[in-house]
């Protein structure tokens, strides 16, 4: 069982993402903001985290930093989906984001990125070249 956690405050986009993963082998859960996502992650770390950036209470960057700082969560693959970022945004790499998807993003691209991260599995972000960088999921 591969668990995907989606952190997304927008109901329409969350519904779209949940529908997208319905036919995949992923077990998907959804959090309404970064704070709720962090609670879920501390309770039961997912295999992959897919997160929005602009969210109430705790935004995507705060969530990502908290996840990377946690003992049990530091190595979780993280994909970001956001309409606020441009491809190659330097904050993605410096915060330990594994894949950057900019809205609107074709379904296949989202599915492909999450599947590749699930296959890659947990990995460290403290090395100079991280395992996820070799997947080239962050456009330069
Ligand atoms: Zn990574």
Automatic annotation (TrEMBL):
Query: Which superkingdom heads the taxonomic lineage of this protein's source?
Result: Bacteria
Please list the coiled coil stretches: none
Q: Which InterPro entries match?
A: Bact_response_regulator, CheY-like_superfamily, Sig_transdc_resp-reg_receiver
Q: Which CDD domains match?
A: REC (cd00156)
Kindly state which keywords UniProt assigns to this record, in alphabetical order: Phosphoprotein
Tell me which SMART domains the record gives.
REC (SM00448)
Annotated positions of the 4-aspartylphosphate modification: 52
Record domain Response regulatory: where: 3-118
Q: Which Gene3D superfamilies match?
A: 3.40.50.2300
Q: Which PROSITE patterns match?
A: RESPONSE_REGULATORY (PS50110)
Name-wise, this protein is: Response regulator
User: From which organism does this entry originate?
Assistant: Actinoplanes subglobosus
